[in-house]
Write a sequence for this structure.
């Protein structure tokens, strides 16, 4: 099922639901980013975290570069990118 008006929201579904007096599910049903677009952005962010770490940055520096995420969040992003790599690729 796809949204009626597929697009990336600038606010969370809960925030928009409170503003318009509807449920968060209604907001998601009407307006949601297409899955393929979401996955592409997610993978790009994970790949960027791994690239920064492999360039020699410390985890807290990677997190700061990614927009102020914690060191542990940066680590998890890079780990997910590494897990997506084919076997045998360093």
């Amino acid at each position: 099922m796809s949204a009626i008006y597929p697009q990336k929201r600038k606010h969370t579904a809960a925030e928009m639901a409170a503003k318009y007096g509807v449920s968060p599910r209604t907001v998601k049903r009407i307006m949601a980013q297409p899955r393929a677009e979401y996955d592409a952005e997610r993978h790009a962010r994970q790949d960027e975290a791994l690239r920064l770490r492999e360039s020699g940055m410390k985890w807290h520096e990677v997190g700061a570069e990614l927009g102020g995420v914690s060191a542990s969040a940066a680590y998890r992003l890079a780990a997910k990118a590494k897990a997506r790599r084919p076997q045998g690729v360093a």
Remarks:
- Helices lie at 13-20, 24-30, 35-54, 59-65, 71-84.
- Residues 34-90 form one domain.
- DSSP finds five helices and no strands in the chain.
